[in-house]
């Protein structure tokens, strides 16, 4: 099965393409706005993804730039999807804006590469572990209802793994296997769950041992990679998501995402093999 054509990614790809097409015909934003009798801020906001791209506006721009039918059909399909809502939008009232954006990006990705320095990756968590983890969030003083809604989001995200829509490659610090969230039983079940998921063909888990080499001291991060679209390259370029208690941030320029990919390669090379990692997880889980 293919990943969902997420409206979040459609909006972002469309913004990139509208800017690229304008520049390709040698027009400035001011010139296009003047010719179409639009405001310059509208052109700018469309190209920066700051406003929702309406299909009729996209069609007008494509006609103005004299874009061929194949490219126009692709971009109009993006525009049509961009106007829709993702399931995650229903939870926007209890989630940081950056996290809502992240879920929309993750839904369209085909591969997730992650380093987790403190906890089990969200897509590989049990419900009880996720609930316990969310309950420790004192920075925003979450109510019980907010904890539950955040837990529901995490569980819904996990369908990507269960349905093998997403390849997951995780490097996890051994301390995450020891750091307890919830009861001992919750942790035991979490580690057993991690072991079971690591046996799936689309999941790879490697543990960075505490008594082994640590190539760098880095906070957790996620790299999302997107599928190829026939004739149009990747649906979207790689995105790095840096996790923070105050809300995550994104890095999207090619040089920065490349450096994070190298960092993850160093962490993976320093980690236990997948087989050794499974043995360690099983021992910690008392399996």
UniProtKB/TrEMBL annotation:
Annotated SUPFAM superfamilies: lambda repressor-like DNA-binding domains (SSF47413)
CDD domains per the UniProt record, alphabetical: HTH_XRE
GO molecular function: DNA binding
InterPro entries, alphabetized: Cro/C1-type_HTH, DUF5753, Lambda_DNA-bd_dom_sf
Coiled coil: none
Domain HTH cro/C1-type stretches: 18-74
Pfam families: DUF5753 (PF19054), HTH_31 (PF13560)
PROSITE patterns in the record: HTH_CROC1
Protein name: Transcriptional regulator
Record organism: Acrocarpospora corrugata
């Amino acid at each position: 099965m293919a990943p969902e054509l997420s409206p979040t990614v459609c909006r972002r790809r469309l913004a990139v393409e509208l800017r690229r097409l304008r520049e390709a015909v040698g027009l400035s934003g001011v010139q296009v706005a003047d010719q179409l009798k639009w405001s310059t801020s509208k052109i700018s906001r469309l190209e920066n993804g700051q406003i929702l791209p309406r299909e009729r506006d996209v069609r007008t721009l494509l006609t103005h730039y004299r874009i061929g039918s194949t490219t126009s059909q692709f971009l109009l399909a993006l525009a049509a999807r961009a106007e829709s809502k993702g399931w995650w939008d229903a939870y926007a009232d209890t989630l940081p804006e950056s996290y809502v954006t992240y879920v929309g990006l993750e839904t369209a990705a085909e591969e997730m590469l992650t380093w987790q320095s403190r906890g089990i990756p969200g897509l590989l968590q049990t419900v009880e572990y996720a609930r316990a983890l969310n309950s420790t969030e004192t920075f925003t003083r979450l109510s019980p209802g907010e904890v539950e809604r955040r837990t529901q989001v995490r569980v819904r995200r996990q369908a990507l793994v269960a349905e093998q829509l997403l390849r997951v490659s995780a490097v996890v610090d051994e301390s995450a296997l020891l750091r307890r969230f919830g009861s001992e039983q919750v942790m035991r079940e979490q580690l057993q769950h991690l072991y079971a998921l690591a046996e799936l063909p689309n999941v790879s888990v490697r543990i960075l041992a505490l008594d082994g080499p640590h190539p760098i001291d880095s906070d957790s991060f996620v790299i999302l990679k997107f599928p190829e679209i026939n004739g149009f390259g990747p649906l979207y370029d790689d995105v790095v998501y840096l996790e923070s208690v105050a809300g995550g941030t994104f890095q999207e320029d090619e040089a920065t995402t490349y450096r994070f990919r190298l960092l993850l390669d160093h962490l993976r090379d320093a980690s236990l093999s997948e087989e050794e990692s499974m043995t360690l997880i099983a021992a910690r889980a008392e399996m």
